[in-house]
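Why does this matter for the project? Reviewers at the last site visit asked to see concrete outputs rather than summary tables. In response, this paragraph embeds two records directly. Each consists of the residue sequence and, immediately after it, the corresponding structure tokens. Nothing has been edited or filtered.
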Amino acid sequence: MMSLPSQEPSQPVYYKGVKFDANHSPVAMEMAESFEVRDDDVFIAAYLKSGTTWTQQIVSLVCADGDISEVCKVPIFRRTPWLESVDRSGTGEPMPKLLEKAPSPRLMKTHLPYNMLPQQAKDGKGKIIYCARNVKDVVVSWHNMRRMVVRIPCGTWEENFKEFITPKEAYNGFWWDVIPEYWRHKDDGNMLFIKFEDMKKVRFVDKKIDRILK
């Protein structure tokens, strides 16, 4: 097994009683709720370890008419900035602040629960693409990532599993609250709810994403 860097894990941060890892910024999350949404904004949302990066890549390719050489010119963290984070390239600015001047169309990723999304997005402005994954796979993937990523405190499988199924201890909100909340909005005009398991049916997913973006 590969050795991990000698670095202390970061303590979690809390916003409105929900625990998040240290990549999340309470300031950015507060700003996100009043974020000015444009009609062509796209929010790529998912619970942690549920297919966020995969969805980001598909959306990027759809927006670039499938031109992978064009997509690869820009790193994914710049193509689809993390809405509730801060800029780690040097400015330290909350990402919602930096996105104010970003050209359209803006693609953004988020792990926020539905109730913490920008209010204008919840009111129907912009597009929300939500990817959900079987919870059994989510918790296993989350545990495995924590064994490799030093910044997130990691316990044994039993400890991490117990944390995941404890409402007040789970990172990014309690899965059994977050997913049903998004599911209740699956028929909203600006929402596309897809599943990680359907991502294997690439042609099927591409067509659905292409349709909501137009």
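We now turn to the second protein, recorded in exactly the same manner.
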Amino acid sequence: MPLTLTPLESPAALVARIKTWGRELGFQQLGIADTDLTDAEPRLRDWLARGYHGEMEYMARHGRKRSRPAELVPGTLSVIAARMDYQPESRATLRERLADPATAFIARYALGRDYHKVLRQRLQRLADRLATHIGPFGHRVFVDSAPVMEKPLAAKAGLGWIGKHSNLVHPQAGSWFFLGEIYTDLPLPPDPPLTDHCGRCHACLSACPTGAIVAPYQVDARRCVSYLTIELHGPIPESLRPLIGNRIHGCDDCQLVCPWNRFASLTTESDFLPRHGLDTATLLALFAWDDATFLARTAGSAIRRLGPERWLRNLAVALGNAPPSIEIETALQARADHPSALVREHVAWALGQHITRRNQPPAANTT
């Protein structure tokens, strides 16, 4: 549709106004992208052909609509891409939590309120403000909620480059941020993309606990801790369970080691701060939750999507990886007859790990 602007306002001036509104709404950066994803489309096809999406069949369900915005939302000409910081604590504190085998480690994006709701509401307010300014226009808001290639679009909009770990990286903000988009039928001038500055760094490949980053810019989700603990509905492969450590919902290791994250800022959004002490909770404390407690404590959280069964599955694996203790064995025994076969299987595995370690002879003294 033709833009309805004041006589003195150009499309570029309108974009500047949109970015100002975005900052007022709490976004750290906004950018404009066109809809040409011809570079990203073959990479997506190859990733799917390799089976790297695992059981995430929705990644292939919509055909070309994911890589062709105008087929998903007819009339789309431009995409307003936005990012919002969410890092709740320093990297030093985060490393301490991850290094403590008794602590339940949850990826930091999931500690607070569900980001889908926060970003979607802010983006809709931005769209409403734009409509008030120029009149009604065609648009649709997305926050990781539809077949949208949000990282390639954000990269085209100048919000960063896609790093070797497949996350978006900004040279002045690292990668601890959420992304959201507004598909519009407005012919807005796009922003220039940034160049890739990963260079020869392989820190994220080396740090991945399960070797899921199989090559630079290639992630096999079937080995990724985030996939195993969140997307996978069935049993976690036994060979990967010991590598998961104390991670019970997602993984932040590749972000922890990325040198660009030394420039990341802590979030100023109270909605993204930890709730119910989940940043410091122990494995045993969370394993003791019943279903009602899980539902109450995860209300409004991205963790709710797991459900009580997968929550206990993940905790059982982490407890199986923890140092042997009577308290852990007792807690696992209490769940040995759980109604869920999925929970029972992982509890039995965890108990087996503890029994095996308990029965191992002490290491010989070589001094």
